[in-house]
Amino acid sequence: MFQKLGLLYAVLAFLIWGFFPIVWKSLGVIPTLYIFSYRIAFSFCFLLVINILSKKHPFRYLYTEWSKNYKSLVLSTFLIGCNWYTFLVAVNSGHIRQGSLGYYLNPLLNVLLGFFFLKEKISKLQLYALLFGSFGGGFFLFSYGIIPIYSFILALTFALYALVRRKAKVNGLAGITFETLLTLPLALFFIYKDQFVHSVTHKLNLSLWLLLIVGGALTAIALWLFGEATRRVNLGLLGLMQYLSPTLQFIIAIYLYAEPINTGTFIGFCLIWCALILVSMEQINILRKKIKHGKIAKSA
Questions:
Q1: Contact present, 35 and 88 (Cβ < 8 Å)
Q2: Cα 259 vs. chain centroid, distance in angstroms?
Q3: What is the model's pLDDT at position 300?
Q4: How much is the mean pLDDT over the chain?
Q5: Sign of torsion, CA 285 286 287 290?
Q6: CB under 8 Å to 18, separation ≥6 — which residues?
Q7: Structure pTM?
Q8: Residue 70 above 90 pLDDT?
Q9: Which has the closest alpha carbon to 53: 164, 177, 146, 232?
Q10: Are the C-beta atoms of residues 240 and 283 closer than 8 Å to each other?
Q11: Phi-psi region for residue 261, left (φ > 0), alpha (ψ -120 to 50) or beta?
Q12: Residue 57 has what DSSP assignment?
């Protein structure tokens, strides 16, 4: 039951992230910087409520986490902030495909960062996956004629973010609460500019305001769900499930927003999907070994 609940939390988190482009695209009448600022502000409010409801002494708990990990949290704040802003820019400039590609490339970058910074060995399957991923990236360069910059920024910032958070070993809920808190002054500055200088959101109707609030709330809820899932589900299994989000984003880009896809782009995606299949096979092998040695319950 404990692990089944974790699987439910993970699926819900990945579904929210997968459908996020629809939320941000619907808010396209607002400049991206202002969407980012309101997202941070509303996310922090909801995260604060979650902390208060889920902890007996939330402020003492948050202070303890901060005192142990403040250097890493400053760096992770910068990385996740860049990631969120880049994704918003990609979505609202008609490049949802590049956004999905970035999160497809993320597991491959995780392998490389694990090798260089954590001294993790690269298996044969992982090596073949990296080669397929490189060829896929090459086809994207050929088909686009330009570097898919949003994809690379999203993949790199999120992979580095995961590395920093892994080394810090800070609690997930506390970590993202501080990351939104550290970004909050910048967000409030741009909210002030919006309210008293540019007055962009003054023209919004009630439904768009509600969507803006919901976007912030879903950001906090998805992160909380994912944090709870990591406590209940093996990370290897979570790694396999994470492809749900970029797959949904890719489908939304092609079928809902009619973003163009040519032969070279399609071949590039196919090569990257082959790379992800190889990475998934590696994860499945690891999971089987853990099940065999009794480290994971077979009923999961």
A1: yes
A2: 22
A3: 42
A4: 84
A5: positive
A6: 244, 245, 246, 247, 248, 249, 252
A7: 0.86
A8: no
A9: 177
A10: yes
A11: beta
A12: S
3-state secondary structure of 298: coil
Secondary structure of 230-291 in the HEC alphabet? HHHCCHHHHHHHCCHHHHHHHHHHHHHCCCCCCHHHHHHHHHHHHHHHHHHHHHHHHHHHHH
pLDDT above 90 covers a percentage of the chain that reads: 32
Both structure tokens of 76: 């992770």
The contacts of residue 167 (CB under 8 Å, 6+ apart) are 72
Torsion sign (Cα): 228, 229, 232, 235: negative
d(CA 153, CA 102): 7
Of 60, 56, 39, nearest to 179 by C-alpha is 39
Q: Which residue has the higher pLDDT, 54 or 258?
A: 258
Q: How far is CA 16 from CA 64, 111, 216, 257, 291, in A?
A: 30, 25, 12, 18, 30
**Higher pLDDT pick, 133 / 61:** 133
Tell me how far the alpha carbon of residue 134 is from its chain's centroid. 22
